[in-house]
Amino acid sequence: MRIATWNVNSIRARSRRVVDWLVREDIDVLAMQEIKCKPEQFPAEAFEEAGYELVIHGFSQWNGVAFASREPMTDVATAFPAMPGFLKGEEGPGLPQEARALGVTVGDIRLWSLYVPNGRSLDDPHYVYKLDWLARLEEHARAELAAHPQRAMALMGDWNVAPFDSDQNVPGLVPGVSTHISPPERAAFHAFETAGFTDVVRPIVPDGFTYWDYKQLAFPRNEGMRIDFILGSPAFADLVTDASIHRNERKGDAPSDHVPVVVDLEVASDEDDRPMIF
To answer: Where are the beta strands (DSSP E) in 70-136?
Structure first.
C-alpha cells in the first residue's frame, strides 16, 4: 500500500495535476491539506474517474483537509477530542473550530490528515493557538496509542514546524523571532516522539525539504523547509518498507508550494492466493 500526504494549496487550481500524480505514482491513499474549498466545491469528478473515493472537510476558501482513497474509508472524524478553535480577537473555550483535521480508517490503519496552524509570529494569538492545538493533538494521539497499542496509526500533513536546524534553509527565519523554528514549537513536535510516534520518512530519506516559498526564487536556490511529515505508531512504523519526497512536483506549471511525501507499507492482503484443493 502506498500512502501519501500533500499540502495541495488549493485543490481547484491543481486537481488535474494531483490526479495525474496519483495515477502515475500508484498511490492508494492521499491525505490532502489546504484544499481551500467546501465539499460541494471540490473537483470530485476527476478523482472519481481515476478510481478514488473522497472524504472532504472544508468550510471556506481557507484551510480544509481531505482524503482520496482507492479503498473504503470508515470511522470519519472531522476533529480530535478537545481540538481548540480560533477567532481573531477572541479568547477562551468554545471558539469555532477550523477545518484542520480529518481522520479515517482504511482497512486496519487509522490515518489523520492534519494542517497545523501557522502561528504567524511569536507575539500573535495564532501562535498560542498553534501550541495549544499541537498539545491537544498529542494528548489524543497518546491516549489512542495507550488504548490500542497494536493499532497502526499515522499522523500526516503540514506540521508548520521545522524540528531540526537542518530542516530549513530560509534566510528570513531568525531564531527567537520567527515561527516554525522556535523552541516551544519544536518541543511540541518532539512530544509526539515521547508519546510513541516516530517520523517514518526521515530514517529512509534523511535530507530534503518539502516546502519552498513562491517568492525570491526560493525553489531554485533551495531555500526551503521540511515541514510535511508522516508520524507513525510502532505498528505503523513496522509496516513501512520505503519512503520518498517527491521534489519534482514543485516544478512545472502552477505547482503547490509543498511537495508530496510518500510511504510504502507491507500490508497483508485479504485475498488468499493458495491453490484450491478439491
So the answer is: 73-77, 101-106, 109-115
